[in-house]
Amino acid sequence: MSNEHALLPPEELQARLQAIGEERYHIHHPFHHLLHNGQLNKGQVQAWALNRYYYQASIPAKDASIVARLPTPDLRREWRRRIEDHDGDGSKPGGVERWLVLTEGLGLDTDYVTSLSGLLPGTRYAVDAYVHFVKERSILEAVASSLTEMFSPNIISQRVAGMLRNYDFVSEKTLAYFTPRLTQAPQDVEFALGYVKREARTREQQEQVMAALRFKCDLLWAQLDALHHAYVSPALPPPGAFRP
Fold first, then answer.
1. Is 238 among the domain residues?
2. Residue 230 burial (CB < 10 Å; 0-12/13-18/19+)?
3. Of 52, 56, 183, 239, which residue has the fewest beta carbons closer than 10 angstroms?
C-alpha cells in the first residue's frame, strides 16, 4: 500500500486535525475580529447572540442522536454528560439557559429569542445541516464533527476578554455562559479525540474524520458569513430577520 493510502499513526491523525482547525476555525473570521475588538455596535452584538442561540439550543438534540447510536453504556454515559452540560439537570442551569442570560443582558426579549422568528436563513440552514449530518452520517463522523471544541478555549478567551474590555453593555454575568466551557470543552475533546483515534481503523475512515471536522468548521464559518452580510456589509437583513 502506498503512503498516500496507508493508515496514519494516531499522532499524525491528531496533527492533521489540529492543522484543519488552525486553517479553518472561525477564530479567523472577520466578524469574530470585529466582535472581540469592540468594533460592533450593540445591535450587531444582539444579532450575533440571537442567531447563535439557535446553534446552542440545537446541540442537545444533536447529542441525543449520538447517544441513541452509541453501542455501550460507558459511551452513552459519557455523551449524556454533554446533554446535561447544555440542558442542565433541573437543579443548575445548563448552557442553553446561560445563553438566554446573555441575550437578556443584551436587551433582547427571551420569548422573541426562543421563538426563532428573527433568525437569519443562513443560520437556520447551517445549524440544521449540522443536526442532519450527525443523524445521517456514521457514528465516527458524528463524533469527529464535535472536534471543533479542540479550538474553542482560545476563541472563548479572546471573545470574553475583548467584549469585557470594549463594550460597556456587557458584564461578567452577561458572559457567564463561557466560563464552564473552558473546562467542559477540554474534557469533551479528550474523549472524542481518543474515540476517533481508536475507532478510525482504515485510512478511509481517517479521511472521513478529517472531512467531518472540515464540514463543522465550514458551517461555523457560514454562520458568521450570514451575520456579516446581514448586519455589517452590506448590512441588509433579509425579510423577517431581526432588525436592531
1. no
2. buried
3. 239
Return the residue matching grid coordinates 479525540.
193
Give the Cα separation of 149 and 225 in Å (integer): 20
The model's pLDDT over 55-104, given as tens digits with 9 standing for 90+, comes to: 999 999 999 999 999 999 999 999 999 999 889 887 788 889 999 999 99
Cell of 238: 433579509
In the chain, the number of structural domains is: 1
Distance CA 170, CA 168 (A): 6
Domain for residue 1, yes or no?
no
- pTM of the predicted structure, to 2 decimals: 0.94
The helix/strand count (H/E) of the chain reads as 11, 0
**Is residue 240 domain-resident?**
no
| Contacting residues for 24 by C-beta, under 8 A, at least 6 apart | 214, 217, 218, 221
| Cis? peptide before 234, omega within 30° of 0 | yes
Is residue 166 within 8 A of residue 60, CB to CB? The reply is: no
| Containing structural domain, residue 200 | 8-231
